[in-house]
Every structure is written in C-alpha cells, then in structure tokens.
Amino acid sequence: MPTFEITTASADDIRLMADWAHAEGWNPGLTDGQAFFAADPCGFLIGRLDGVPASCVSVVRYGSGFGFLGFYLTRPELRGQGYGGRLWATGTARLAGRNTGLDGVVEQQPNYRKSGFRPAWTNLRYEGLVPVDVAPPPGVTLVDARTLPFGQVTAYDRRFFPEERDSFLAVWTTAPGRTALVALSEGEVRGLAVLRACRTSSRIGPLYAATPEIARALVSALAATDPSAPVAVDVPDVNPAAVRLAGELGLTPSFETARMYTGPAPDVDHAGLFGITSLELG
User: Fold this and answer.
1) What is the 8-class DSSP label of residue 251?
2) Are 278 and 205 in contact (CB under 8 A)?
3) Inter-axis angle of helices 240-248 and 212-223, nearest 10
4) How many other β-carbons are positioned within 10 Å of the β-carbon of residue 2?
5) In sequence order, what are the beta bridge partners of 189?
6) Which residue of 15, 54, 73, 221 lies most exposed, with the fewest beta carbons within 10 A?
C-alpha cells in the first residue's frame, strides 16, 4: 500500500504549491511565498504519497481567534482518492476553535458549505489595462509605503482585516517585484495598495481607500510602473463602489471565488475595501 504522510511544508514545497496554484488559474505573485512563510511558518502543510508531494493546504493562524485556509489542492491525477480529505482534516484541526475564512472557487463551494463554511460575499477578479494619468483628489498625495512609520501602515490594515498581521505585511509590502503606495491627506492614511509581479497579469492587493477617487488614483499610479502590462484586482462585491470602479476603469471579470467563514463575517470596513490582499491568506 502507498504511504501518505503529512508534514509542514518547506520553502521549496511552498514554491511548488505556487506552481500548482498557477496551473489552476489563480496566478499567485512571484514572491508571495516569502510573505506567506512570514505570516505563519507552520501554517503550510504538504501531503506526500511515497515521498512525492501529492496535496497541499495552508492553514494560517492570525492572533488568538482567526485563521485562513487556502492552497487546498491535490494533483489532478490523484483527486477522488481521499488524500485531499485527509489533509483537510489535519489542516482544519490546526484551526479548531477559530473563526476561519477561505476564498472558495465556484465548483468547491458546496463542499465547503458541508464543512461549515458560509458565504459572506463574492470576489470577482477584474483584469485589463487601466488609465495611467489619473491624479489623486485635491489634498491627497501618494507616497511609497516604505517611507512611512510601519505602525501607520499596520494600524490602517487593521481596519480591513480581523487580526494583526504585522510580520506578513512587513514582507508583503517590501518583497522584490512589488510597489506599495499609501494615500495621505493631512498626515492621515487614506488608502493603501500593493502591486506585485505575477506570471500573467500583475495583481493589486490589498486595495484600500477612503473614496473611489483615491482607489482610482492608486490603481492608476501602480499601473503606471508598466503601462503596457495588464493588472488584476480581486474585487469584493460587498462593496458596490468597488465593482463600479472596476467597470469604469475598463477591467473585465475573469475569475470568481466566494469569501466564506465558519463563524460570523468579521466586522471590517467593507466600504473601504476595494480589493482583497490574496486568495490564499485573506
């Protein structure tokens, strides 16, 4: 009988998980793994069949009461044989007692419902070329996020995420192939956006903003780093202004997931959430 073993993923395993995610059309960032590892080094599990990677899942803990599940994949030729289910059981046990979120692809949402996850909203990935000459509103300036005291960035992020994630953000905003911008007005943070290089469209996430005009300016400024390259934003439909903005920018929907939780949807600033950070870690 083949031997199936579940262990904590190594850095090489996380790179393999990114390859598998790319094959599914998720288009992870080229250096996402660095930030993922910083978020929770023990939060990535790999299942090996006779020593060969067969399935994976991320079960990242945030603070004392929240977790996020992602990267739930099994190699296509091994699906339906129970390996993913065994890994799922091990992973969800690590998040027991926590309100847990995930972004579920359409075909898997019925299975996630059976496991106790309930939908909170739909994320639609919008992609395309955007105008690169949009100025910020009067009184708002866009600056490199790395020039601000890090505490200002993390405090702003807490408005949109249910727990502190400073270690993750420190890498997410500074890893190679990224541009992170903050919108400032009278010294106050009014927006944050990070562009990261991916295998296809570069992705913007998170995209936070006090107003649609600030969000538009952030997207435009990030797109200006390579005007000929398409960008992608995972837009939550819980913020109708974000959906309208994606259409006004000329972006088109290409991919869909549902944000689902095992408990109540966290009380975050939905009106300022114009793009989620990532499908894998929330």
Assistant:
1) -
2) yes
3) 40
4) 12
5) 184
6) 15
Rounded-to-integer distance, Cα 200 and Cα 159, Å: 30
| Residue 260: its H or E element | strand 252-261
pLDDT 10s digits, 35-55 = 988 889 899 999 999 999 999
Summary mean pLDDT of the chain: 95
- Mean pLDDT calculated for residue range 81-99: 96
* Global pTM value: 0.95
Give strand pairing partners of 103. 259
Whose structure tokens read 């009184």? Answer: 139
Place of tokens 């909170």: 120
pLDDT digits (tens, 9 = 90+) for 56-82: 999 999 999 999 999 999 999 999 999
DSSP 59-108: EEEETTTEEEEEEEEE-GGGTTSSHHHHHHHHHHHHTTTSEEEEEEEGGG
Residue 200's pLDDT is 87
* Confidence at residue 36, expressed as pLDDT on a 0 to 100 scale: 85
- DSSP single-letter state for residue 167: H
The string of DSSP codes covering 21-59 is HHHTT---BTTHHHHHHHH-TT-EEEEEETTEEEEEEEE
Region of residue 40 (left: phi > 0; alpha: psi -120 to 50; beta: else): beta
pLDDT at residue 26, as a whole number: 84
10 Å CB burial of residue 271 (0-12, 13-18, 19+) is middle
Strand, coil or helix: 241: helix
Using CA atoms, how far apart are residues 233 and 201, in angstroms rounded to an integer?
Answer: 9
